[in-house]
Amino acid sequence: MKSHAQAVVIGGGVVGCSVLYHLTKLGWKDCVLLERSELTSGSTWHAAGGMHTVNGDPNVAQLQQYTIKLYEEIQEISGQDIGLHLTGGVMLAGTEDRFDWLKSLHAKGRYLGMETEIISPKEAAEVMPLLDPKHFVGAVYDPIEGHLDPSGTTWAYAKAAQKQGGEIHQQTHVEALHQQEDGTWHIHTSQGDIHAEHVVNAGGLWAREVGKMVGLELPVLAMEHMYLLTEEMAEVTRHNQQSGKQIPHAMDFDGELYLRQEQQGMLMGTYEKACVPWQPDETPWDFSMELLPPDLERITPSLEVGFQHFPAFENAGIKKIINGPFTFAPDGNPLVGPVRELPGYWCACAVMAGFSQGGGVGLALANWMIEGDPGFDVWGMDVSRYGEWITKSYTNVKVRENYSRRFSIRFPNEELPAGRPLRTTPVYDLMLAQGAQMGESFGLEQPLWFAPKGIREEFSWRRSSDFNPVSEEVKAVRDRVGMMETSGFAKYVIQGEDAELWLDQVLACRIPKHGRMCLAPMLNEKGKLVGDFTLTRMDDEDFLLIGSGVAEEYHLRWFSEYLDPELDVHVIPQSSTMLGLAVAGPKSRELMQKVSPYDFSNDYFRFMEMKQVSVGLVECLVGRVSYTGDLGYEIWMEAENQRSVFQTLMQEGESLGIGLFGLRALNSLRLEKNFGSWAREFRPIYGPMEAGLNPFVAYDKEADFIGKEIARKEKEEGGNLRLRTFVVDAKDADVIGDEPIWHEGEVKGWVTSGGFAHGSGVSMAMGYVPREIADQTSGWEIEILNERCSCKLQPKPLFDPEAKIMRG
Ligand SMILES: Cc1cc2nc3c(=O)[nH]c(=O)nc-3n(C[C@H](O)[C@H](O)[C@H](O)COP(=O)(O)OP(=O)(O)OC[C@H]3O[C@@H](n4cnc5c(N)ncnc54)[C@H](O)[C@@H]3O)c2cc1C
Questions:
Q1: Which DSSP category does 380 fall into?
Q2: Which of 87, 397, 420, 739 stands 20 to 30 A from 442 (CA)?
Q3: Ligand 1 center–CA 235 separation, angstroms
Q4: CB of 188 closer than 6 A to ligand 1?
């Protein structure tokens, strides 16, 4: 083994080999893969080898599509047969709700260029002759599904990588990792040491242990998983002979089963409800190419359903039951990317569908390592979506929940119960007492809406039981005064002699004057949006930055990457120490005046100003800004004082008709202001011109902020896309996100978010469309649950279009 490499990949499963393949393909020839035992000896060798493009996140679905399309390439380069069978497949719905879900996947797939087709149960039975159509209400056919040989595929990546210059060492156990002062890594192995600029954790079943080598608690856990193989089946042979084709893949969501042909028999797998984690504390290092004892009883309920839905199985002999472990993150998506304060340490872990996702994960990670950017929208699988609040027990309950719900529908208004409550604020129980229906984001409980007595959340794709209560919450804001909790925002104090200098380079906005706030887009080197904040200058060397809560770890990683040790600047996260409440609506000024001796008149407290004032008994930071687009104030206080401020505002607000509102009402309010939000409208694939944030970019400021030149170019040339707001002629279902936008009969764009704007009484959607047609006033439609609804471009906000109320 050589003593130095540019990158060392730890782990020779399908994921590690894909990473090595992509690194060497994209130009890093000096890369080494180290495998403890033999290639595939983790979860890879016993996989069922199935592959499909379906994923709830369209960006992950796109990477799955890439993976499947890559197979011919690696087969050709390596000369290794991968046993590829592109049989196509059917995804089956046993209920109307499931069919709605499949239709929504089909619709999302349209703008990604996927060629799925909605078919009837009868048509499904013509495609997949083993199923009994009476158990289904509909299906989606996907031509890009099939199966392959897991070992052959892993070796194909490996051999192709070797041809491109990569080195592979088997029987080489990485025992410890040490980062040097210069940021490079010493990798201690059973075969001697190697030194590298970059290390990749592709440890699969041992990813958690390879994380611990650098002090990381990665949210990853292995679960036992079983599938059965049948003896030869006459029905299979007959179909093969008559059609000249294999039996296509099938995913029976309501039966919680997947099936495919294996030789002249069938393979049937299931994600059983009574699932079992494997080695929840530590994966033994001597585990290799082993199977776990099968537990037929555990999967019997699913198999019984399977035998009804696919009657040919009743007469088939079971040849073998495979039980093997593989890993999951709490939400079932991979954990990919760099880790805060560990430069050169990269994750490619928790890939639960290595044969659908491995190629895309390898490509994204290699791009990230080489170019500094994954090149795709990888938000859904970025390791930074979990923060320091992660614990092993949280991972355990969430992974079990995810596994047992693998084939369950998650409705857009459904919050999953496991691992909650984890993080709560002091007003949590007060909110619950008022009927708060909580949602969890970044581990924190936050009110989504307030249910009047006797009303419960009904999960649905369509408008549900929250519709009228949310409408009342909106009314409280627009007519009187509403209060919500804002603790879920991420808050950072930036201090130091060089704080201003640093912020001027990191943020694209102009740095505000004392006591003033401004909107602050943050760009990457490619001029794309990696953050949208509000920045306040508290003092010469003291700033407050407020941004999206779910992006806290993502942003902290970004800040730490750009922190120059030569500069005197400190980024201090305030997530649990500084909490927030906000009041908004025409009577919000009166309320603030009642609870504070400060003068809140417009002359003294202007829009986008922040001041330290007392609210009841407590000294707070109060900013005159509101995401509702109304007259309003954001109030920040120390955690221990939040309860007191809440009670003061509720008591004093009573005579003004104060009403609590949650995140769903906030969404409704911001829609009629055409305000975008992070992770929906603002993501690292859009430029500021495209996203309409260009008025907040100081293109001509002196500082050479990150992405400046490309952002200027985007401004000159206009960019490719435009964010647009639409009023949708929707019936009983509003957009959720990711629906296709049609123009003149063709799919031209995609929805980023939307919902019902109760204040204006209309259904609204925001989304991206090509710049050339972005100002067309007619011809627009948005597809909701397989129905094309006409819609109208809404260039100006429906509420307070001239922003007089907000500023008044
Ligand atoms: C029963 C079953 C059926 C499945 N069916 C499918 C399917 O149909 N389709 C699908 O897409 N996926 C399927 N999977 C999941 C699939 O197997 C995984 O997604 C995939 O194997 C993950 O690959 P990996 O490279 O991340 O991990 P692994 O295969 O676990 O590879 C990790 C490798 O890293 C090595 N390693 C770890 N630590 C070190 C160290 N310190 N030093 C050196 N080497 C180290 C290990 O020896 C191992 O070889 C199935 C899994 C099971 C168990």
A1: G
A2: 739
A3: 32
A4: no
Statement: residue 56 has pLDDT above 80? no
Element (H or E) spanning 748, and its range? strand 746-757
pLDDT digits 0-9 by tens, 257-313: 999 999 999 999 999 999 999 999 999 999 998 999 999 999 999 999 999 999 999
Residue 202: CB within 6 Å of ligand 1? yes
Candidates 21, 39, 44: which one to mutate for ligand 1, based on the most atoms within 8 Å of Cβ? Answer: 44
Residue position matching structure tokens 């009041």: 583
- Binding site membership of 291 for ligand 1 (Cβ less than 6 Å): no
Residue type, 9: V
Which tokens in the block code for residue 601? 């008149």
Residue 247 reports pLDDT greater than 90? yes
d(CA 566, CA 583): 41
Predicted pLDDT of residue 109: 83
**In angstroms, what is the span from residue 205 Cα to ligand 1's centroid?**
6
DSSP label at 14? H
Q: Which of 410, 403, 305, 247 is nearest to 94 (CA)?
A: 305
Q: Are 43 and 327 in contact (CB under 8 A)?
A: yes
State whether the beta carbon of 12 lies less than 6 angstroms from ligand 1.
Answer: yes
Query: What token pair was written down for 19?
Result: 């990473």
Q: Which residue is closest in CA terms to ligand 1's atom 10?
A: 353
The type of residue at 43 is S
Angstrom distance (rounded) from CA 475 to CA 759: 7
Closest-lying ligand 1 atom to the alpha carbon of residue 352: 19
Q: Which of 44-58, 497-511, 776-790 has the lowest mean pLDDT?
A: 44-58
DSSP-derived pairing of the beta strands 482-485 and 659-660: parallel
Ligand 1 centroid–CA 593 distance in Å is 61
| Mean pLDDT to the nearest integer, 732-750 | 95
Tokens of 76: 């050709």
The number of CA neighbours under 13 Å toward the Cβ of 336 is: 31
610-615 β-sheet, strand order:
610-615, 618-623, 632-638, 578-584, 482-485, 659-660
SS (H, E, C) 294-320: CCHHHHHHHHHHHHHHCHHHHHCCEEE
Q: Using a 6 Å cutoff on CB, does residue 146 contact ligand 1?
A: no
Q: 132 Cβ partners below 8 Å, 6+ apart?
A: 125, 308, 309, 310, 311
Q: Separation of 164 CA from ligand 1 center, angstroms?
A: 23
For residue 553, pLDDT over 80 is answered with yes
d(CA 703, CA 567): 15
Buried-state track 677-705, b at ≥16 Cβ within 10 A, e below 16: bbbbbbbbbbbbbbbbbbebbbeeeebeb
Protein residue closest via CA to atom 33 of ligand 1? 11
For ligand 1, whether the C-beta of 199 sits within 6 Å is: no
Ligand 1 proximity of 320 Cβ (cutoff 6 Å): no
> For the chain, how many helices (H) and strands (E)?
20, 38
- What is the enclosing helix (H) or strand (E) of 8? strand 4-10
- Look up tokens 């949590």; give the residue: 428
Task: Please provide the average confidence, as pLDDT, over all residues in the chain.
Answer: 96
Residue owning the nearest CA to atom 36 of ligand 1: 11
Name which residue sits closest to atom 35 of ligand 1, judged by CA. 11
d(CA 740, CA 767) in angstroms, rounded, equals 9
Residue 4 Cα to ligand 1 middle (Å) = 26
Kindly state the DSSP code that residue 510 receives in the 8-state scheme.
Answer: P
Q: Can you read off the two tokens belonging to residue 644? A: 């007191």
